[in-house]
Amino acid sequence: MTITTLSSRELNQDVSRAKKAAQNGPVFITDRGKPAHVLLSYEDYQRLTRQRRNIADALAMPGVADIEFEPPRISLGARPAEF
User: Fold this and answer.
1) Three-state SS for 70?
2) Where along the chain do its domains lie?
3) 16-33: per-residue pLDDT in tens?
4) Per-position b or e across 19-28, b if 16+ CB within 10 A of its CB
5) What span, in angstroms and rounded, lies between the C-alpha atoms of 36 and 38?
6) Class of 4-66 per CATH?
7) DSSP code of 72?
């Protein structure tokens, strides 16, 4: 699975390129550098909406490893217990 990113301007100038890219994986469409939309093939859309999945199924999808995701770390301060 290949993930493609196009700006809105690139999409408007070459829709056929975006449609071809969507056959190999999702196409992220950006507005001012930020993801705004995703173009999927109809088959991928049907597969995604066919049934509700749990988080384990979603994480097992092909291509998930290619998605950059770094959640912020939080620190929880420990306090002594009051008895």
Assistant:
1) coil
2) 4-66
3) 999 999 999 999 999 999
4) eebbeebbbb
5) 7
6) alpha beta
7) P
d(CA 81, CA 1): 51
Model pTM score = 0.58
Two tokens at 62? 């092909």
**Tokens in use for 56?**
């384990």
One-letter-per-residue 3-state SS of 2-67: CCEEEEHHHHHHCHHHHHHHHCCCCEEEEECCEEEEEECCHHHHHHHHCCCCCHHHHHCCCCHHHC
User: What is the tens place of the pLDDT at every residue in 27-65?
Assistant: 999 999 999 999 999 988 888 887 666 777 777 777 777
C-alpha span between 70 and 73 (Å, rounded): 9
Are 38 and 27 within 8 A, CB to CB? yes
